[in-house]
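Lab channel / #folding
Pinned by the channel admin:
"Please post every new chain as: sequence first, then the structure tokens as a reply. Keep commentary short and put observations after the output so the thread stays searchable."

First post following the new format, from NK:
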Amino acid sequence: MDREFYEGIKEILDSARNKVYQTANFAMVEAYWQIGKSIIEEQGGEDRAEYGTGLIKELSAQMTKDFGKGFTVANLKNMRQFYQTFPNGYALRSELSWTHYRLLMRVENDTARQFYLDEAVKSQWSTRQLERQINSFFYERLLSSKDREAVSQEIQTLEPSKSPEDIIRDPYVLEFLGLTPNDDFYESDLEQALITHLQKFLLELGRGFSFVARQKRITFDGRHFRIDLVFYNYILKCFVLIDLKIGDLTHQDLGQMQMYVHYYERELMNEGDNPPIGIVLCADKSDAVVRYTLPDDETQVFASKYKLYLPTEEELLKELKQEYQALEAEKQGDPALLESEIKQNDE
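Reply from TO:
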């Protein structure tokens, strides 16, 4: 097959997918701008915090009931801010997604914000590229640089550009269209198998574990994070968050779990709940590590109680290592090694 012929076919499909991406995203952008405008108008055009909060909470509850996820109080506040930041709806650009606009809303300087908007359109920046440019003060660096062309081009090597496949992976678009994200996009086969085994192990272990969610998504400033497993322990009366890492455990992994714990503590704890617990598991051929993240203000009494009902590090390490080795043996087609692992599990 002629290479040039194939490249032409590929260009047609890429162009079509980009049109779908832009159409879906801009329909969402326009709808959210209209919602923000309606909220402001319902408030009489005044920034009355007390009334506004009550209205948004009521609206969030009804919209979540009718349309599903995506209409939390925080998201509706973002829509309200969206209209306030970009009051001229005719100036909205179809090339930019809702996540682009969420990032632009964080830029306080009007001139800088307009600059980033124009550059994002002209240079076709992905949301990751736009975020990096804002965080690295691209606007200020460009103004003071003698080699503006070099400064402008560096982003292409620092962050990948947008791909058409992002259409089916963007949780905002999926929620807007009423579709359910496919968790298989976010985990490899090995990770999926290990997470499934851990989920089964903890439920069979008893000690008060109740399954809540798998690949639970939380969002900060337009960036999406996924917690591998979330349980509620009704004996400890707290959420238990579990993240699995394939490969070396890093300080960033531990910091990320600390962020998850703080998020649950501030946003999702119910009255009477104890602070959540985070567990980071690292699976590797040579080593396996377990790290617990307990609440900042945990007392010795709570620590002792946690140890009584949570699986020990040794229990988790044993399950993780055995399942990892069994999966590797099955993958490599080694019946002797697989039989050995089955015997260990039976014992």
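NK: Residues 247 and 284 are 5 Å apart (CA to CA).
TO: also worth noting, The longest helix spans residues 3-42.
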